[in-house]
Amino acid sequence: xxxxxxSAFLTVLANLTSFAQTGPGGVGNxxxxxxxxxxxxxxxxxxxxxxxxxxxxxNANSPSQFILSDxxxxxxxxxxxxxxxxxxxxxxxxxxxxxxxxxxxxxxxVT
Length: 111
What we know:
1 helix, disordered N terminus, globular, little secondary structure
């Protein structure tokens, strides 16, 4: 009886795992996530310039900036204790290696 219950449980568990999410944060994958940036993976210290930001979507759309005075800065002193990136509002920017095109809607979220 115990073997039958264990076998049934493993069968149900195997079927449930087929519905698991993929991609960064468990959302999508490289075919439907054009870009995924996450400040928590950056290794710079507070106030350090950010020369590039790795794209976690798997599509190699990592933005970068080679001019030091135009690089945003790492900020670990956020109110919520999560890392962030500070752009000075004047000339800081990160540029993509090529235009990112997609036929789907585009959503930017900054929190």
